[in-house]
Amino acid sequence: MQIARTKSLSRVILTLFSTFIISLVISLIVFSIGIAGQVNEQIAQNTSSMLHMIRINLTDILERAENYIVDLSLVDSDFQNLGSQGDMTRTYTMAEKIDNYAKPLLSSNSYLSCIFVYSSATGIYHDVYGTLAGENGPERLVLKTGIRKGILELLQGDAINLQEWFVFQVEKRNFLCRMTRWQSIYMICCIDLEQMADSIVNQYNLPGKIVFSKGGKTLIPVPDRRLEDYQWTGVSGNYKVINGTQPLLIVEESVGSISVACITSYEDFRQHLSTMQILLMILLAALLLTLIAGYQYLKRHLVCPMNEMVKVMERIGAGDMEARAREDYRGSELRTLSASFNSMIFSIKKLQIEVYEKQLENEKVQLTALKIQIRPHFYLNCLKSIYALAAIGKNQEVQDKVLYLSNHLRYVFTEMEDSVSLQQELSLCRNYVGLLNVDIDERITYREDINPELLNFQIPPVSLLTLVENSFKHGRRSYNNPKLEVFISAHILANEEGRLINIVVKDNGIGFPENRLAQMHHLSEGHVGLNNFQKRMHFFYKRNCSIAFSNNGGAQVDIFILDSEEKVYEATYCR
């Protein structure tokens, strides 16, 4: 039955559905990952293209600002005269002219925050400001003061870079600066990077933020804490995704000595799917749900009923003929199958009962035949004995013999039941010994040792008498021990399965022939009385009876009977 289960219909259906569903899910995942990869690549390319335009624009702005201050320092006489000694009126007049030159540049370039001119020879400086950060005048005034102070400290130091744009910090804000010099005159233009980043986002209507970095470190505050430890590469066209609750897409471009990065939200690929792709995914999801629902339906209305029927078959195989399959299934095929199965089991049970009753009837007929076969055996022996007594003229012995024989015949002809009590059987044995002692010189000694609890124990009639007769017939052949003793005992032995009753019939005669002793444990045609005795005991007690033949100072027959509920039931049923 276990082999059938390993190849059952439920396993096959489960395997097929699982294989199909797993394949479908894997295909859906691969398809989704492929779409996601394409969408993400498209997002990165679009962001990279936009950032490339921003880089070109920033490069152009920086070049124009750089060209302006270089041209002004080389060709403008007013700028060059700032380094010569003169009265203060003339100096301020030249500064005002420079102020007028710078304003058009500041107005045309919204990214520029300041143009600063300084003469180290005269100590005169002049600064012109464009758009500064700050919500009110005092904040911008603080920032202007910081710019002046920072630039003057920078000019008084030795680390002045006149070849490229550099970064210096004022009031925790980083400025991108470019410096030129003509003799002792310096001109510096400054760009507030944080303010320029906000301007770029507004100008290009970007969905994310702009971050400037240099040497792997950011120059403005980052929009997300996850970017604080990010290693900025500055490699153009490179992009990376930072995972989290809301993934971030980072695209970088190099602009001169610094790099600019665009930080955008890494949007879910579903937002970029086409209508056909969405419909295909919906179709796949619906198919998956349909398969799961179909499997559940088949499991409930086909697999489970089949498993129930298999369990019923297992119970029937174990001997429970009362087990029946349900007949209230929804499917007409299963209802018909279960009804036919139940009808078949009912017919099998009916046939089993009929066969069992016929077997019992046959056994009863055999038992009756055995009884009939035993009774003439007793009659012939007794009639021979009476005939011998009458022949020699022992009338008193004939009378006694006839009296004992009448008692014996009364017992045999009136007790037609299948069983008698042990007490009745022992009474018959005593009467039989008295019957034999009438016409023999050496009387037979008869003894009993019976547990009183067993006096009402049921045994087949004439069973012990057969053994007593066998002792008399074969035990007196010894001339050295002509006096025969017959002993019958009945006791109860301890046993875990129930009462084990031991009945012993023994004599002090010559015993069983050694060459025939082993054969006597099997039914044999050579011992009619003992053969009938064994058959009747086994018919009556079934498997609960065991008989052992041995020689123990004479012939000894041990009868072991397991007095269990099963035995009592079978014995009662046999009656």
Description:
The structure is a single chain. With 575 residues, this protein is α+β, with helices and mostly antiparallel strands. Helix content is 54%, strand content 19%. The protein has a five-stranded antiparallel sheet. Strands 7-6-10-9-8 form a five-stranded antiparallel sheet, covered by helices on one side. It has a five-stranded mixed sheet with strand order 12-14-15-17-16. Strand 6 (209-214) and strand 7 form a beta hairpin. The longest helix has 67 residues, at 9-75. The radius of gyration is 61 Å and the shape is rod-shaped. The model is unreliable at 1-6 and 566-575 (pLDDT under 50).
Helix/strand layout:
Blueprint: H1 2-6, H2 9-75, H3 77-81, H4 88-108, E1 112-119, E2 125-129, H5 137-156, E3 166-170, E4 173-182, E5 185-192, H6 193-204, E6 209-214, E7 217-218, E8 239-242, E9 248-255, E10 258-265, H7 275-317, H8 332-391, H9 395-414, E11 420-421, H10 422-437, E12 445-450, E13 458-459, H11 463-475, E14 485-493, E15 499-507, H12 514-517, H13 528-541, E16 545-551, E17 555-563, H14 565-574
Parallel strand pairs: 12-14
Antiparallel strand pairs: 1-2, 1-5, 3-4, 4-5, 6-7, 6-10, 8-9, 9-10, 11-13, 14-15, 15-17, 16-17
Helix pairs in contact: 2-7, 8-9, 8-13, 9-10, 10-11, 11-13
